[in-house]
Structure formats: C-alpha cells, structure tokens
Amino acid sequence: MTNELLKVSTMNLDGQPVLSTSQRHHLQRTLQQRRQGLIDAICGLERALVRGGGRLADAAGAAEAHRRGKLLLEYQRTMLREIEAALVRLANDEFGISEKTGDLIDWERLQQMPWARSEPAAGDTPYPGH
Predict the structure, then answer these.
(1) Whole-prediction pTM value?
(2) Is residue 35 a part of any domain in this protein?
(3) Of 2, 42, 56, 58, which has the maximum CB count within 10 A?
(4) Does the residue 129 lie in any domain?
(5) The domain that contains 95 carries what CATH number?
(6) Among residues 28, 80, 113, 84, which one has the least CA distance to residue 105?
(7) Is there a domain that residue 13 lies in?
(8) How far is the C-alpha of 72 from the C-alpha of 75, rounded, in Å?
(9) Which domain holds residue 84?
(10) In angstroms, rounded to a whole number, what is the distance separating the alpha carbons of residues 95 and 117?
(11) What is the 3-class SS of 43-82, one letter each residue?
(12) Within 10 A of 27 (CB to CB), how many other CB atoms are there?
C-alpha cells in the first residue's frame, strides 16, 4: 500500500481521523513508556550478561542463566523494534491498520497491544507484531 492510501484509510467517511487526538496521545505515551522500559531492561540485562556468574560450582547454572538471559535479550530487542516501528507508523498516520487485511485495528486491541500490526486470529497469543 502506498502512504497516501494508508493515510486515507485512517479517516472515517467524513474525513475525520478514526483515532481521536486523546487516543493518539494515549497510545504514543504508552509506546514511549514501554520503549523506555525496554531500553532500561536491555541495558541491565546486557550488563548482567557481561558480568557473568560467580563460583565454579555454579558453572552449569550460570551457563543456563546466561543462555536464558541471551534469549530474553533477543526477545526484548525484538519488542523494542516493534514499538519503535509503531511510533513511526503513528507519526506517519499509518497506525492502526492491519497489514494482513488493510482494515482498521480495533481500539480495544490497540489499547492492549499498541504495537499490533494486525487483528488476532483465533487462538493467537500476544507476541511481537501480532
């Protein structure tokens, strides 16, 4: 879709924005807060991974903790990319449009997961991009 089509689809039939100014500000604040929380968590986890474990007796446990920490770090970085992309879509008036169908994403969905790029399919669980 072109940017122009996306901008038009964020308007109702009267040419008014589908999301009110207060809704947009609420979502922007929520995304910015989550973004900052993720940045803080990523920095803390990176520091913890660099410090590593302690005693030799804990080597196996430390290796497992390090592996899990790296997985968590990967997930947090993915979430950060999703949130940053949502902030860009919001700034470009391309926000709240399903990438799958081109339809508007329900307000309730956006409140629960403001980085959503589509409506959930039956049985979906919330994870980046859905």
Answers:
(1) 0.74
(2) yes
(3) 42
(4) no
(5) 1.20.120.910
(6) 113
(7) no
(8) 5
(9) 3-7+20-112
(10) 8
(11) HHHHHHHHHCCCCHHHHHHHHHHHHHHHHHHHHHHHHHHH
(12) 21
